[in-house]
């Protein structure tokens, strides 16, 4: 039974004088603080933080945790986000002494094990992508996009070309155009065709001589492999441009097809999707990128290299774009990816994609009978159904269905994305779910489509809260505890 | 495979339902010539036991607290992490949950983020906080973007030379090719020279970036710098050390308009540089330009207090190329750890932690400069928990190598960042370092190249 009392804020629980933390006495001869730091630099009072016992803190956060859905407790058929199982062994291994407690400025001689791991991971990512050079530094997928686009800009500069345009399909992740703009490019969107692929006419029309990069998500956000991939890549390359692959959907093609082989010059991975790093309620992820040999000089420093049997950090990279993040990168996330990949081996990685695609097509074959899937009989690892008919006939929206699923203990699918499908419901089962779970999900989904519209409009009914007023939250923002109501 | 459920029977039944004969057929939409015709060339599959042995062997090749006492700083710090932080953040309901786009089933994360924002505002004395960014360095770059986008007239960014060199490198990467002029103000005494700061600011200055405590550990006169900057209407961005705010005046009290920090010190391990926690707080004027996720309080349809992601119209998934930044994530789990840490420490605990750092660092500086070959470099400047030493024999690498032999990570050589400081290194002393360790490091340094035997900590 959920603790219904647990709704207070830390500031409301606080009692002056309560203490959770006792530090040891100072074991060096103490001096008056005013002798160590100028008096006018010292705070007049300490920050107003809550005063609680350890037990209160533990109960507060434990109770909060029970108000979350999570992969450990629920099924998340969440398209584009690849919410797969997060293996426990990875958590333990990433927390090993000698892994979790390394300082980023330790001398190379004292981190040979870590450097070996990172060096091997660079090679593994290159092998899976078919792109020979790798930087592990970017801190998230969007950060990887930005980093790769900066490298592209520097590459064009190095060959004396001024290229200003980045093309991205209208179904792409919003980060694609945002990253392009931040890297100093002009983002232009290309239409999707009725099958969800790149509209080739629109693409050809917009493929100008000053194109720098085409950003493409393949498999696409509709869960389809871009059938004109070769033609698209060739056309971009003929114009002297580069192809960037948004690797969000790599879970569908591990060991089956490699972006480097099908035309990409650069890509990022989302290790928190493809390689099972936990999403952490919003982060951290990581955004390692792989690129062709000709783009390698522009990658951020450092890169791990091997000289004989010694691993070293190569900072001597004069053409590098520089740094995009402090220290080495999100190493903790990378260690989990390394463990996931080694837990599978080459055949296992292929099985991941095979089962992810099998599960998705199985769900598709069941769902399409009551929720149309406008783009195709087959999909890769995900598909997009549409509640447009239900909305027209009975006033039931994609949002209503998503919210009602919460009542039945399923996380909602991604809804209203991609924007190219009306009332989109984007479903991605992942490889780490059983047929029983998928069957239960389909049955529930069907049951919901038969339910009373009013019941659905007010769903969810069993969750701690229901349909919060988001307009009010944005119109009169209350962004910290003591602001509210003022 | 441990994580796959489908048995051959399941697969057969599913294929029948789909109406195909093989899984291979499902990949039919990938043109034949675009497919990989071989197995990936990767290490063979490892079971859990083998993998554990493999990772343990790799870990054993690294120096860790079991083998070495860490006096390294420079933006990553060996602070103590209370057990409750690990225990709570390890709950699967936190770390395996998704971004809280469905508020009804994410109230735990949303409330925790809202409380994080509240704690950061209280910690910094600022009006607003987002729900975190990647790390301290990229948070600083995002702060400059925010300042540049806020309709100020100038496009010149003034950065003090005492700001973390890697943070300054990130600024160069982000802005140098976009036509933004970055002026670096030298800090020859390890601390800003106010006259030089003043001389570097003019009507075209958009913002002034200061770090305090700075990269060398020195505490800057942020209030004076802010006064100078504000005279020219420049935005003041302060990068701070969250632990130091147990003792030092808050950025908001010193006149900072935007405050950013590396927040891993608040309850997260060093883990070789990441993932870390980018803290960003600011004044009200930036509310619609603040990058990253923001959680707001509201009511649900039954009138119950609750929390949602808000002000999303700034964000990339709605605004695409017109978004305030391309960031699509936060460091939710590490923001959570910071909140738990601050809740455990409370005001008294934070002050004690900061005081222990300062007392021990000053003791260490005094002891280490008693070693013949070592001298302080910025002796007169006030410092918090880090300080710079010069090896008068000019052999920093040799000195630190001997310290490693004796069981100490003795300092960060500064030649890698500043060629003129080839003979200098940065020493950091957190609350975890003991007098015994400090004294032993002192003895080790005194015995270097003297023929005496080294002393183990």
Secondary structure layout plus pairing:
The complex is a heterodimer of chains A (486) and B (457).
Chain A: H1 10-13, H2 33-36, H3 54-65, H4 88-94, H5 112-129, E1 133-135, H6 141-158, E2 165-169, H7 175-182, E3 186-190, H8 200-206, E4 211-217, H9 229-238, E5 242-246, E6 266-268, H10 271-274, E7 289-291, E8 303-307, E9 310-314, H11 331-367, E10 383-386, H12 388-394, H13 398-407, E11 414-415, E12 424-427, H14 435-450, H15 453-457, H16 470-475
Parallel strand pairs in A: 2-3, 2-4, 4-5, 5-6
Antiparallel strand pairs in A: 1-7, 6-7, 8-9, 10-12, 11-12
Chain B: H1 8-18, H2 23-26, H3 48-60, E1 69-70, H4 83-89, H5 92-95, H6 107-124, E2 128-129, H7 136-148, E3 156-160, H8 165-175, E4 181-185, H9 194-200, E5 205-211, H10 222-231, E6 235-240, H11 251-254, E7 258-262, E8 278-282, E9 295-299, E10 305-309, H12 316-319, H13 332-368, E11 374-376, E12 386-391, H14 396-405, E13 408-409, E14 412-413, E15 424-428, H15 435-447
Parallel strand pairs in B: 1-13, 3-4, 3-5, 5-6, 6-7
Antiparallel strand pairs in B: 2-8, 7-8, 9-10, 11-12, 12-15, 14-15
Helix pairs in contact in B: 4-13, 6-13, 7-8, 13-15
Overall geometry of chain B = globular
Count of beta strands of chain B: 15
Label the CATH architecture of the largest domain in chain B. 3-Layer(aba) Sandwich
Rg of chain A, Cα atoms, Å: 25 Å
Count of the domains of chain B: 2
**CATH H-level superfamily of the largest domain in chain B:** Type I PLP-dependent aspartate aminotransferase-like (Major domain)
Dominant shape of chain A: globular
Number of helices of chain B: 15
Biggest interface, chains and residues, is: A-B, 205 and 207 residues
Mean of all residue-level pLDDT scores of chain A = 95
- What fraction strand of chain A? 5-15%
Low-confidence stretches of chain B: 450-457
Derived structural class of chain A: alpha/beta
The oligomeric status of these chains comes to heterodimer
Order of helices and strands of chain A: HHHHHEHEHEHEHEEHEEEHEHHEEHHH
EC number (chain B): 1.4.4.2
Keywords (chain B): Oxidoreductase
Subunit structure (chain B): The glycine cleavage system is composed of four proteins: P, T, L and H. In this organism, the P 'protein' is a heterodimer of two subunits.
Family (chain B): Belongs to the GcvP family. N-terminal subunit subfamily.
């Amino acid at each position: 039974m959920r603790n219904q009392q647990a709704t207070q804020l830390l500031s409301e629980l606080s009692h002056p004088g309560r203490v959770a933390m006792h530090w040891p006495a100072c074991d060096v001869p103490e001096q008056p603080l005013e002798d160590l730091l100028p008096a006018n630099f010292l705070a007049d009072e300490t920050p107003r933080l809550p005063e609680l016992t350890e037990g209160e803190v533990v109960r507060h956060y434990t109770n909060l945790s029970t108000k979350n859905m999570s992969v450990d407790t629920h099924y998340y058929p969440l398209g584009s986000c690849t919410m797969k199982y997060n293996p426990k062994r990875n958590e333990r291994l990433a927390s090993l002494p000698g892994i979790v407690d390394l300082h980023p400025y330790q001398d190379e001689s004292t981190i040979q094990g870590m450097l070996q791991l990172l060096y091997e991971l660079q090679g593994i990512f290159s092998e899976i992508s078919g792109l020979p050079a790798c930087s592990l530094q970017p801190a998230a997928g969007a950060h990887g996009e930005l980093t790769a686009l900066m490298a592209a800009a520097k590459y064009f500069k190095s060959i004396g070309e001024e290229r200003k345009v980045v093309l991205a399909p209208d179904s792409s992740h919003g980060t694609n155009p945002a990253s392009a703009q931040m890297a100093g490019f002009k983002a232009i969107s290309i239409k999707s065709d009725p099958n969800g692929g790149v509209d080739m006419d629109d693409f050809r029309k917009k493929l100008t001589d000053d194109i720098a990069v085409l950003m493409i998500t393949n498999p696409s956000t509709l869960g389809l492999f871009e059938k004109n991939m070769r033609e698209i890549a060739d056309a971009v390359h003929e114009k002297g441009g580069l192809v960037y692959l948004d690797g969000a959907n790599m879970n569908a093609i591990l060991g089956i097809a490699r972006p480097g082989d099908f035309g990409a010059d650069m890509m990022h991975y989302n290790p928190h999707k493809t390689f099972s790093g936990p999403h952490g309620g919003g982060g951290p992820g990581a955004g390692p990128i792989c690129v062709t040999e000709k783009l390698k000089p522009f990658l951020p420093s450092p890169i791990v290299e091997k000289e004989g049997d010694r691993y070293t950090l190569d900072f001597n990279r004069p053409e590098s774009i520089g740094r995009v993040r402090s220290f080495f990168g999100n190493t903790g996330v990378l260690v989990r990816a390394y463990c996931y990949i080694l837990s599978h081996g080459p055949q296992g990685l292929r099985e991941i994609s095979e089962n992810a695609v099998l599960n998705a097509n199985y769900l598709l074959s069941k769902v399409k009978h009551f929720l149309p899937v406008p783009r195709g009989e087959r999909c890769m690892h995900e598909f997009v159904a549409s509640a447009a008919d239900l909305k027209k006939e009975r006033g039931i929206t994609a949002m209503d269905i998503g919210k009602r699923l919460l009542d039945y203990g399923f996380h909602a699918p991604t809804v209203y994305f991609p924007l190219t499908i009306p009332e989109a419901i984007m479903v991605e089962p992942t490889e780490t779910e059983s047929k029983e779970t998928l069957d239960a999900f389909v049955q529930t989904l069907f049951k919901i489509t038969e339910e009373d519209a009013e019941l659905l409009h007010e769903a969810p009914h069993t969750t701690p809260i229901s349909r919060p007023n988001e307009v009010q939250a944005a119109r009169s923002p209350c962004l910290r505890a003591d602001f509210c109501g003022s | 495979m441990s994580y796959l459920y489908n048995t051959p029977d399941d697969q057969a039944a599913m294929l029948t339902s789909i109406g195909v004969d093989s899984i291979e057929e499902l990949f039919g939409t990938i043109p034949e010539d675009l497919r990989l015709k071989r197995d990936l060339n990767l290490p063979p599959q490892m079971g859990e036991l083998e993998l554990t042995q493999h990772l343990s062997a790799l870990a054993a090749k690294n120096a860790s607290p079991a083998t070495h006492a860490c006096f390294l700083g420079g933006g990553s710090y060996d602070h103590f992490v209370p057990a409750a932080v690990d225990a709570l953040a390890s709950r699967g309901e936190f770390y395996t949950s998704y971004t809280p786009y469905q508020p009804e089933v994410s109230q735990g994360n949303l409330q925790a983020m809202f409380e994080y924002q509240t704690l950061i505002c209280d910690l910094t004395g600022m009006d607003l906080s987002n729900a975190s960014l990647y790390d301290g360095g990229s948070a600083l770059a995002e702060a400059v973007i925010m300042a540049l986008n806020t309709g100020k007239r100038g496009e010149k960014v003034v950065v003090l030379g005492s700001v973390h060199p890697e943070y300054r490198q990130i600024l160069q990467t982000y802005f140098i090719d976009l036509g933004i002029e970055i002026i670096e103000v030298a800090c020859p005494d390890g601390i800003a020279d106010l006259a030089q700061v003043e001389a570097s600011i003019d009507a075209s200055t958009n913002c002034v970036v200061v770090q305090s405590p700075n990269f060398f550990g020195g505490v800057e006169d942020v209030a004076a710098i802010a006064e100078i900057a504000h005279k020219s209407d420049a935005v003041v961005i302060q990068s701070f050390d969250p632990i130091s705010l147990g003792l030092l005046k808050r950025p908001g009290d010193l006149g900072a308009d935007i405050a950013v920090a590396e927040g891993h010190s608040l309850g997260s391990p060093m883990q070789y540089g990441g993932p870390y926690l980018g803290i960003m707080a600011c004044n009200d004027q930036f509310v619609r330009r603040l990058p990253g996720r923001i959680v707001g309080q509201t009511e649900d349809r039954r009138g119950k207090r609750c929390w949602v992601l808000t002000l999303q119209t700034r964000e990339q998934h709605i605004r695409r190329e017109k978004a305030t930044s391309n960031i699509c994530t936060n460091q939710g789990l590490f923001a959570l750890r910071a909140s738990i840490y601050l809740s455990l420490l409370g005001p008294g605990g934070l002050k004690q932690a900061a005081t222990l750092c300062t007392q021990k660092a000053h003791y260490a500086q005094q002891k280490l400069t008693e070693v013949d070959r070592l001298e302080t470099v910025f002796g007169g400047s006030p410092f918090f928990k880090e300080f710079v030493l010069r090896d008068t024999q000019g052999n920093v690498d040799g000195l630190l190598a001997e310290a490693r032999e004796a069981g100490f990570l003795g300092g960060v050589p500064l030649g890698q960042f500043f060629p003129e400081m080839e003979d200098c290194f940065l020493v950091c002393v957190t609350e975890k370092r003991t007098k015994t360790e400090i004294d032993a490091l002192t003895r080790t340094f005194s015995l270097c190249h003297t023929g005496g035997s080294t002393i183990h900590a």
